[in-house]
Amino acid sequence: MNIIGKPLNRVDAYDKVTGKAKYTPDLVSPHALHAKVLHSTIANGWVKEFDLSEAWKVEGVVDIVTCFDVPDIQFPTAGHPWSTEPKHQDIADRKLLNARVRCYADDIAAVVAETEIAAEVAVRKIKVTYEEYTPILSIEDAMKEGATVIHEEKPNNVVVHSSYEIGSFEEAIKEKGLIKVVGDYETPIVTHCHIEPANSFAYMEDGKIVVVSSTQIPHIVRRVCSQALGVGFGTIRIVKPYIGGGFGNKQDALTEPLNAYLTTRVGGRPVRLAYTREETFACTRTRHAMKFHIESYIRPDGSFAARSIEAYSNQGAYASHAHALVANSVNGFRMMYPVGAIKGEAYTVYTNMPTAGAMRAYGIPQIGFALEAHVDDIVAKTGFDSIKIRKQNMMKLGFVDPVTTITCHSTGLEECIDKGEKYLSYTKKRKEYEKQDGPIRRGVGMAIFCYKTGVYPISLETSAVRMLLNQDGSLQVQMGATEIGQGADTVFAMMAAETVGLTMDKIHMVSKQDTDVTPYDTGAYASRQSYVSGLALKKTAETFKKKLLEFAGFMLKCDPWDLDIKENYIVHTNKDERLLSVAEVALESCYSMTNSQHISAEETHHCTDNTYSFGVCFVEVEVDIPMCQVKVLDIINVHDSGTILNHQTARGQVHGGMSMGLGYGLYERHLFDPKTGRMYNDNLLDYKLMTALDTPDLHADFVETYDPTGPYGNKSLGEPPTIPVAPAIRNAVLNATGVAINAIPLHPQRLFGAFTDAGLIK
Amino acid sequence: MNIIGKPLNRVDAYDKVTGKAKYTPDLVSPHALHAKVLHSTIANGWVKEFDLSEAWKVEGVVDIVTCFDVPDIQFPTAGHPWSTEPKHQDIADRKLLNARVRCYADDIAAVVAETEIAAEVAVRKIKVTYEEYTPILSIEDAMKEGATVIHEEKPNNVVVHSSYEIGSFEEAIKEKGLIKVVGDYETPIVTHCHIEPANSFAYMEDGKIVVVSSTQIPHIVRRVCSQALGVGFGTIRIVKPYIGGGFGNKQDALTEPLNAYLTTRVGGRPVRLAYTREETFACTRTRHAMKFHIESYIRPDGSFAARSIEAYSNQGAYASHAHALVANSVNGFRMMYPVGAIKGEAYTVYTNMPTAGAMRAYGIPQIGFALEAHVDDIVAKTGFDSIKIRKQNMMKLGFVDPVTTITCHSTGLEECIDKGEKYLSYTKKRKEYEKQDGPIRRGVGMAIFCYKTGVYPISLETSAVRMLLNQDGSLQVQMGATEIGQGADTVFAMMAAETVGLTMDKIHMVSKQDTDVTPYDTGAYASRQSYVSGLALKKTAETFKKKLLEFAGFMLKCDPWDLDIKENYIVHTNKDERLLSVAEVALESCYSMTNSQHISAEETHHCTDNTYSFGVCFVEVEVDIPMCQVKVLDIINVHDSGTILNHQTARGQVHGGMSMGLGYGLYERHLFDPKTGRMYNDNLLDYKLMTALDTPDLHADFVETYDPTGPYGNKSLGEPPTIPVAPAIRNAVLNATGVAINAIPLHPQRLFGAFTDAGLIK
């Protein structure tokens, strides 16, 4: 390959660095109205009445809409492709504004005003009368007999309960000589912390409602808005410019449905609905807090005989992506070590907490922490070698998951482990660090993961791409797949250049999606785009190239089958002599007096394949026991994501994911008032996101396999880097101190408790 | 046909009436810089030097660029498709700013500033030193031996000289008994008077120069900008929103090339270049003033034995569309009465007048006036019946033009004449009015015309269209053809509904063109779109329908060939029972778990056909001889434009064209200072455009033929209505007064001279 694999600069680097790149706020009409949402000050109950009299008096107020005014339609918000089968459809459990309050800061009314300040002032002047119930914040409380019902459709507050069993667990554990290890693990509520808060801008034009939004999934948001308002898909138009990050939060309809409705209330005038950072924290989506109970039965040779998991996921107030995440967790539990009898059971439970949704790696960081902590707990109990036991039991090439049928078409996991081990001298240090005393101790830890590439066959994988020849022989590439900061446009441009035979400067990505004209794609999630949309792109590029060569053949009076394109020139297949430039073909195809052809191609790829990415994290920490501090001294992630499409941007992806993993393991969590359910730390001062000063040097390496199902041998890379970091740190702390801490983050309070219990602090 | 022909409301009516429709000024970034052009205060000469010192002192000035700074590239501006053959290419005779000044108000420098006022003030503070020559304002002066050369490439100031001869003119006039009639006719400089002045807005993004512009021809403007700046087509992006009229003025690159350059000077910051009404009058394009010398030889039976024409077209300072217009005039002369021997000769001549370009009906109103005045001069001299002589000699069905090969595939001209005659009781009144005296007299007049539909085979006719299925079964139609106020989107929507089998509410026109993603089409001119782009639309709609039925066949497990679409439902061909809704097909095609297909179609039509539209104007006037006033008492246009696609919008087209024809015949002309060449009446107070008070009731009628080459039997209608009005009025004045006036407009000064010469005023 000529271009794939090169460490090229991002195609959007210049515009982003110079401020030319347009984001949603840059596109807001200067005459836009401003909307503000009134959020409830209770977490559980009913809105009984509003007193709007003072609010209406605020100068500049154009409209006030309450939960009693909005259409009586329940709609789903999750960023999943729709299904025509009702049982596969997302749960429609919220209205545009809700009279039944289900979390603190639920959306109950909105003001539209000429200025942002007027809207803000008016919102504060709305008086609300509630009927209030005790907030249910924990899974345990929600599942209690007689608990207040949060959604009447789910009388026991369980959104979904699912289970599977591979082999017979009960039979398997009867085997003689098995060692049983049991553990309970817990992960916190954290959030995405994308730079650009949730915001959109809506207006009416051409008989349509247009919503310009910071979203990962314009085509899905179009469908959600049409469902929420009860209008046809074709009357909604979503425009997605550049966005300042999403990490899964924007894989959900956030401000768009309400904003689409608000503009219809004011005669189609433009309305801006921009959430503050505080609202983005408290009123969008979070990562699901989960609890896991794991039991393992190990044979004396280190092989797993039987494993079981029970998982509980705190959904919060509304379903959003609902059970898909914890299902992914318990599936990941099965796939990573697919040996012996395995059973899993999972619950997704409504509570009065903020709604949890998609977040980078979608349930796998949770199970990744639990499972890899548990493996080191097995190691601690059995004395097996921590690397050997993993290698022995982990997924191997050719594995077919018995539930999903997802197949391991390629794996470099063993080499990833070896690279990481070698980098850190893990085995040597691990032994060395096992017997320390003193207040400051060192430890090494590691964790592995597998991650599937896209969502097939659990859900639909489909993508369409269009290519359009410019008259100078350059190429427009128009995709429903979205650039969300991850570098998608750059690798798509490389793919297009590679397959058509052009140089990179000839590729123009149409970065902005506009559902009126952009080919359908479900969007950026599941690390699917370079694989699924990449396949659609490759298919389209091949069709496009064929059409281009047909016209070149017409010009050259030769069989197009004999022609190829190399570096912007038409050549005989396998020869280098330049017969014609693509620019000449383009000019003639447009302006031929006898045979003009405006060469374009548009193809759908209905993807019916999937594969696994793999990787490891190796980390060395220093634990200050009296200060209850963990310092990361060295850390490396090694990934098998198949062919690395662009080493520069891939490294960026890994660094970002590692940073998120470090925060997950060490600092990040949301804190809530246990009485009201109000989020305490809904800002970037109190929510402890990793800063540059907190971050050690991040090391990234790759083991490049060639996956036969990927368009260019590539597999998912976007989400995986965040997965193995937290368990690796936890395992390093265990190595350093002998203390197994089964919940994250490893903040000082938690360490103080654990070290105190272990007798390290007296 | 179910939809074609219905008098439906315009699809953009609601948005235009409510102010929701977006025009270029609505899209200007609030932080845009403002550009102003410095126009020369001489008409002929050289800029020797600028003193910019005072201009630079104006606060807010960001850049000043002069004719000495711009790229040394000459480029063409005409809205023609490009040709890869140099001899068919438009004349590249101007730079972005010109040191060689060729007309009063030529573009010589520009200022970019933070505010419009700062730009305006700075422009006024620029001091210019000129070398000045005597302005050449007339064709006669320009063609004089030793005249100053305006463009060095054309040392005799003749842009192009062309001629043709059908049969042998010299042989033909030897025939015995021929009556010779000679006449000289003259038409004035007039302008388009579109509501929205020339304006654009340029910035850089994604490595491209983006120009949002009020243009009829976005794809051509893209090419012109790339030529003017010497950069690849693919690095220019033109966006065309709704526009407030064009009438041919915006079938030229106007502000766009300079604005594209200006944004590159300021690091890609957005720059607005909005011409005032005065600049739009004086610095964009005008209708060519032409002079004609016609000789006719008529047999005693009224048939034409030989005809000749000599035509001179005043091009003004730059070539723009150049000779294409007067060539169209002398071709029209030949086509209208294609009998006997015919010869034509035409000159397009550079002068120091404002640049003439395209304007509604492109040379045909000029020849229409001369020719139809001349036919009534023949009638006056010979006593033949004015209708009979026309019917006898005019183009008939099956006519093939010997020069262009354009064929008459349909004609309703004879019925048009009969309808108009009957409406006005023309023959009866004509006789009655022949012998009046007294100061106030009445007269009737008529004129006929033919007009070709599109530019094939003189130039390239090509169009591409894309259709995209929405998930609710509605349809996006994306075309390079442009809505310029003429109602194109409405008839295209009707065509799409008709051919696919949907109702009108299911058709969503993507009205805005964006050369990055919009299929190629040369744009709105030559009354080509409903014919040429209509054919491309029909072809695309058929492909789209085929794909839709294929998917429906897959769902219904039957042969798609047996299926059809009627009013949004899939039916068995020729049956009415509804098998499935298109919405169901759309939903399944998007979300099928086994066979998702994002149904779209994109087709090019390379058009190799053309045909003629026809029509007449009949008018009755009252002439106040002492006051030298002409009042129109009754007027009707009757058109054969094939199938009328939408009777309501067609009627609007005819009314608009008639209004323009009335102005052309009675009021409109530009006046110039004979010493400097400065336009006197560059505003809507002094330029006498028809107002509502000046306008009589306008009557429009149609004779519907079915043209076999049109997509739905339709032929051109956009430009024709303006053609026959002025000669019909002139002929009515002749009928009323016996005075043949061979120049328009028939303003009081002209009538005073003519009536005085004729002895009617003493």
UniProtKB/TrEMBL annotation, chains A, B:
A single cellular component GO annotation: xanthine dehydrogenase complex
Leader peptide range in chain numbering: none
Record domain Aldehyde oxidase/xanthine dehydrogenase a/b hammerhead: where: 18-134
Keywords from the UniProt entry: Molybdenum, Oxidoreductase
Keyword Electron transport on entry: no
Molecular function terms, GO-annotated: iron ion binding; xanthine dehydrogenase activity
Matching NCBIfam families: PRK09970.1 (NF007426), XdhA_XDHase (NF043082)
Protein name: Xanthine dehydrogenase molybdenum-binding subunit XdhA
Encoding gene (name): xdhA
